[in-house]
Amino acid sequence: xxxxxxxxxxxxxxxxxxxxxxxxxxxxxxxxxxxxxxxxxxxxxxxxxxxxxxxxxxxxxxxxxxxxxxxxxxxxxxxxxxxxxxxxxxxxxxxxxxxxxxxxxxxxxxxxxxxxxxxxxxxxxxxxxxxxxxxxxxxxxxxxxxxxxxxxxxxxxxxxxxxxxxxxxxxxxxxxxxxxxxxxxxxxxxxxxxxxxxxxxxxxxxxxxxxxxxxxxxxxxxxxxxxxxxxxxxxxxxxxxxxxxxxxxxxxxxxxxxxxxxxxxxxxxxxxxxxxxxxxxxxxxxxxxxxxxxxxxxxxxxxxxxxxxxxxxxxxxxxxxxxxxxxxxxxxxxxxxx
Length: 338
Fold this sequence. Notes:
The chain has two domains: 11-230 and 306-331, Spore Coat Polysaccharide Biosynthesis Protein SpsA, Chain A (Alpha-Beta Complex); 232-301. By secondary structure, the chain is α/β, with parallel strands linked by helices. The protein has helices at 24-35, 55-65, 80-90, 110-118, 136-153, 169-176, 185-192, 215-229, 232-262, 270-301, 328-333; strands at 11-17, 42-48, 69-74, 95-98, 123-131, 161-168, 196-203, 309-313. α1 links the parallel β1 and β2. It contains eleven helices and eight strands. Strands 7-5-6-4-1-2-3-8 form an eight-stranded mixed β-sheet, with helices on both faces.
């Protein structure tokens, strides 16, 4: 295909880090190897997301000997998506590659990504064809998650993709306008509508250490993804409530018919207790769904920053303003309080 875009003047890598002391030296070595072969200069923006091991010390040593290493140290652990956002805010490149530190996503894939970038694509996402070294539970739940998202929530979301992708500067600037607290970056990039394409790869086992993504965090992430792009849980609660009403009406018809036909309607409390439990449970489920959305509204209107920065190395300027700087449109919507 005819090239329609030149190589970026600067290629940024955004790499969130949380307790990755074992893998950081390996990652840096791999990044240096590909940097010598890339057709453009690079910078590596490491975001230390509240690590409690030697990750900060290792990053500081790397930054002291290599100015291409930029380090953003957050005040505490704000989560993977917030750390990615911080990296995007500090990245200065005309194109930005988002990649995890565990080397499950091979950084060498950036050559294929750059080829698609030169063809005019603004988003080049890495699509897994195989996932080595992962449990059957992780594989099954991941497949189920993408099926639900694709069919009911976000039909444009590419399946078997993570946050490993290349973004043009236009997309990075668009992310700067989207400062919601509960973030699902891969869904947000698909929602934008920019020209995008996937490149296939086989995901490898971790190079060192162990995963920090527990089952609890995995389910929480999936729940955030669903609520961020759909009101489906509210609709499900409505359907569930209607189903209980229909069940109650049918049971009433059955009880009346049995009384007139068999004359053996027992003065029972069991059916009454069952119906009360079902109806009461339905009400609580519906209220819980509504409360979940109201809670998220409450968190959003506080306009707190997505993250707080403790210190930086080899960088001091942000490419975009922090969330604490309220956009003018939001400021007007808040009325006279400002």
